[in-house]
Specification:
The structure holds two protein chains of two kinds. Chain A is mostly helical. Chain A has two domains: 95 residues, Rna Polymerase Sigma Factor, Chain: A; 104 residues, Winged helix-like DNA-binding domain superfamily/Winged helix DNA-binding domain (Arc Repressor Mutant, subunit A, Orthogonal Bundle). In chain A, 72% of the residues lie in helices and 0% in strands. In chain A, 33% of the residues are buried. By secondary structure, chain B is mainly α. Chain B has a domain of 69 residues. In chain B, helix 2 runs parallel beside helix 4. The radius of gyration of chain B is 20 Å and the shape is globular. Classes of the chains: A mainly alpha, B mainly alpha. Chains A and B meet through helix 2, helix 4, helix 5, helix 7 and helix 9 of A and helix 1, helix 2 and helix 4 of B.
């Protein structure tokens, strides 16, 4: 672990000159090692990369994290260790950038509408609608889709379909809608509450619905 | 679309609380939450519930939580240990098994 205590980190990073520079360099080296281990051991999607490429990536993420930490140093509450707090920035730097590698092209609203239709049609024609499917399961799905179409606005529908049906990240959905992750999360929260209210009005509870899909 | 996704969506809908924390709020709380979990301790019930509800609904924050937890584990296992910087007058005393600096770091 880092030889510095939380207090030592803060004291040095808040200095100017040589002491601060040395602390920043040590912080970079520490986070470089940390994020390298994360990329190597936790990111199977990067297994094809050479060690040198992983190290370059780790260096970039460590640099980004050090800058973010410097900018946010005054917000450190001291309720956790400094190093744990710092891990948040380097993991965020890595995870955010790696998500962007899987982004699809930014869509126009016409394309959004087409995707929404395609996703809903895929639900309607999925295995859940096989001839042997129980009638009330089919009825529930029709009602769920009707609720999504009538109760949610266009942006909520897109976000819901993207995140829950297409398993897209909140970050990518935010960028597609030219919004922020916080706003997308709130949007999805509102959508969930609307759907829940409608489902509770039509069914007794979650167990009744889940039972439809266990048969 | 399959049964798993529908079941997950239904579960997500019914596990919605009237108010939920947003991602930036969770980012502030995750270091404390991870440390407490690693130490086998518990935060205040309401805070824990808020964090776990958000993680249940947010794949991005779940990824962040898992990454921070991994690094806390690595730190505790000594995998992030840095060597002592060389003293100008005294050569560094390398302990057996100490990690060598990563070349280029």
């Amino acid at each position: 672990m880092s030889k510095r205590t939380t207090e030592a980190w803060l004291q040095s990073l808040r200095q100017t000159g040589a002491e601060q520079a040395a602390a920043l360099e040590e912080l970079h080296d520490y986070l470089f090692r940390a994020v390298f281990l994360y990329l190597r051991d936790q990111r199977r999607d990067l297994a094809y990369l050479a060690r040198s490429e992983l190290r370059q990536m780790a260096d970039d993420f460590a640099q980004d994290a050090v800058l973010a930490i410097q900018a946010n140093l005054d917000s450190f509450s001291g309720r956790s260790k400094f190093t744990t707090w710092a891990y948040r920035f380097v993991i965020n730097a890595a995870a955010s950038e790696l998500r962007r590698r899987y982004y699809r092209e930014r869509l126009s609203w016409e394309e959004v509408a087409e995707r929404e239709t395609a996703v809903i049609e895929s639900i309607a024609t999925s295995e859940l609608y096989d001839p042997d499917t129980i009638v009330d399961r089919k009825q529930f799905l029709n009602e769920l889709l009707a609720i999504i179409r009538t109760e949610l606005n266009e942006r909520q529908r897109f976000a819901l379909l993207a995140v829950y049906f297409e398993e897209q990240s909140i970050q990518e959905t935010a960028e597609q809608l030219e919004s922020t992750p916080n706003t997308i999360y709130k949007m999805l929260h509102d959508a969930r509450k609307k759907i829940r209210a409608q489902l509770l009005a039509r069914y007794v509870g979650e167990g009744d619905i889940l039972a439809l899909f266990e048969r | 679309m399959n049964k798993q996704k529908i079941s997950t969506l239904i579960n997500q809908i019914y596990r919605s609380n009237d108010s939920e924390l947003v991602c930036s709020q969770i980012h502030e709380l995750l270091p404390l939450y991870v440390e407490a979990e690693f130490e086998g301790e518990a935060l205040a019930t309401a805070v824990t519930r808020d964090i776990e509800t958000h993680l249940h609904h947010c794949p991005d924050c779940t990824e962040l939580y898992q990454g921070i937890y991994f690094l806390v584990e690595q730190e505790a296992a000594g995998e992030l240990q840095l060597e002592e910087p060389p003293h100008p007058a005294i050569p560094p005393q390398r302990e057996p098994g100490a990690l060598t600096p990563v070349a280029g770091s």
